[in-house]
């Protein structure tokens, strides 16, 4: 075995440790590095032999970084930031920003808010590329699963840097062709309800319905609020939809006032270290300036 004092860590070694720490599994690390899992496995073994100590604890759930791996990860992240700064400084046109920014949000926010401000971002920064992931879970910004997240929450994580975009107000909607004008019509027609499924048990729309219509059992449970809006628009039933999504669609009719007791907030979030990357700060600033909720 090569002794600990003889082994010289390379930038590629640090990149590998960083990828495995962030990914947690050989497959996830390999995907980040465009390598297969067996290559990642052999490379980690090589580094551990060279250093003379174990970097990761193996378990059925994946790889957990030990103390030295955490220290190396911190150095790798610093190197990553320096490389990003160097690439930005080396751009031929100083005002142009390039690179890929990973954005995580829900499909509702992506379609209802973000999509509308993307064309102006491309005009201002044509070399930027965006990778957009949609899901109800909050992406792990610390492990760089995403660079920026847009999330509905009243209490954003304290370790993240954020800006409050505004309130997400909701109301009950029906199809414009249904003839339903108010809650009395909903009761009279015994309308079907469309609601989020068990993946969103604390969603404001669920809390409001359970409080004011405790006996209602939704006939249709779906995995996103965007789907609720689509079903309502097609006359399947009634459902609670954000105003930013429902008020601009002619196929939908708002049949209650805004249910402000159950409103939440939209937050734009990033990691404290990511905000200094030019590509990330550029997209963050654009979204902060262009996204509007009243």
UniProtKB/TrEMBL annotation:
Keyword Flavoprotein attached: no
Q: Which GO terms describe its molecular function?
A: DNA binding; DNA-binding transcription factor activity
Keyword line: DNA-binding, Transcription, Transcription regulation
Q: Which Gene3D superfamilies match?
A: 3.40.190.290, Winged helix-like DNA-binding domain superfamily/Winged helix DNA-binding domain
- InterPro entries, alphabetized: LTTR, LysR_HTH_N, LysR_subst-bd, WH-like_DNA-bd_sf, WH_DNA-bd_sf
Annotated ranges, domain HTH lysR-type: 9-66
Q: Which residues cross the membrane?
A: none
Q: Which SUPFAM superfamilies match?
A: Periplasmic binding protein-like II (SSF53850), Winged helix' DNA-binding domain (SSF46785)
Report if keyword DNA-binding is assigned: yes
What family name appears in the similarity comment? Belongs to the LysR transcriptional regulatory family.
Instruction: Return the protein name.
Output: LysR family transcriptional regulator
Species this chain originates from: Undibacterium parvum
**What does the record give as the organism's lineage?**
Bacteria, Pseudomonadati, Pseudomonadota, Betaproteobacteria, Burkholderiales
